[in-house]
User: Fold this.
Amino acid sequence: MSCVAGTFVFGPAATAQLQAQVSRQRSTSGEAKAESILRGQTETKEGHFLTWEKWNFGIRPRMDVEYNSNVRRSSRTGSGSKDDIILRPEVKFDVYRAISDFNSIDFTLGIGTDLYTKNTDINTYAPIISPDSEFAYHMFVGETHIKLREAFSYQEDINSIYEVQSGGEFADIEAVRFGRYDNKLGGEIDWDTGAFLFTGSFDWQWFHSNSSRYEYMDRNSGLFTQSATYFITPNIQTGLEFNDPVHFFSKHGKSNSINDQFRLDVGPFFAMKMGPRLKFRVGGGYNYATFFANDNDPVTEDINDWYAYGQASYLFTPWLDNTLSVRRDNRLSWNSDNQELISIRDSIRLSLIRDFAIDIYGSVNFYKETGIQYRNRNTENASYYAGGIRIAYTFLEKWEPSLRYTYYSYERDNAAYSNYDVHQVTLGIQYTF
Assistant:
């Protein structure tokens, strides 16, 4: 689809005219891409890996100690929040092997657990698999880069279940573990012709909750994206992008099951790098979703809307960098057929002292959920605020201690849900073999 769209929009004449100009760049998906991947692997793993023949192995143990002011995400007006000190041990295993001059295998597996020292009743002692765990095979054919991957994770959160009393206040009934398995199998392709870069990704996702309370989320999804990028100059790009996922939910025949759905985002984008300090990207277009009725609930009306986004990064000095992003779109929600989102995020990095970094971050997010919802079929408006600071220092090349504070708050206008806020303070340290 992206190849056809790129030819239709820009035309063969434009390709021929700028082929000589742009082809002087090194390919972004061929040899240069391969060298970049291999160089990154070497720089990251050199000195930290055990080597056996052509195999390289690494271990990154980590320990985080977190204070959380509201581990159960309890309501502000209910029985009161419960704080805790949480131990989060984790170890990551890395395996890397160069198959040829360019092709390679890369495997990362992160395993840990969460240990609540005060609210021990919510401990499951289950192993948690990090979201960045992945098996990937990089293959290069001419100017085409193919990445095949298998990404998998298991994560857990604590959610409180509420009951609205006659006086309108919330009573916390129980804390429920939201454990979920997430597996993605697929890959991505980059094809660089010189003037054009065509990219596409394809993943089949299997998502499953291990709690009957959250089984309405269980689904199989096809996650597909395509884009056609045209290089006006090496620092100026434009093109078309597509995002077209399809979701099939497992719990048909049960009341309040989220509807199966197909989504499509399609529109142009523009990106530019202005000197060594400023780079930005903007895009927008048509936002569409159609829903298919399940056995018990009515079908949600189609979404015909628009999306837009922008991101800008500015390097004030070599040690002060700022990134601002804004987005408005529609997407699949955890709890309903559709979620309209407006999000503003900003992050600042200070690195004046060598091996010492300070990150300051914050976001403001507004949600509107519509369509079939779990437990309720009415529109819900919500706002989510988050902010914090992280300080990290790397010494002796292998040790990295860090200190992070984060505050986040949920405000919802639906009487079936409560409002809550959380303070988190985390002290962590990682050692790389």
User: Anything to note?
Assistant: The chain has a mean pLDDT of 82. The first helix runs from residue 2 to 22. The helical segments are 2-22, 31-45. The chain has one domain: 2-431.
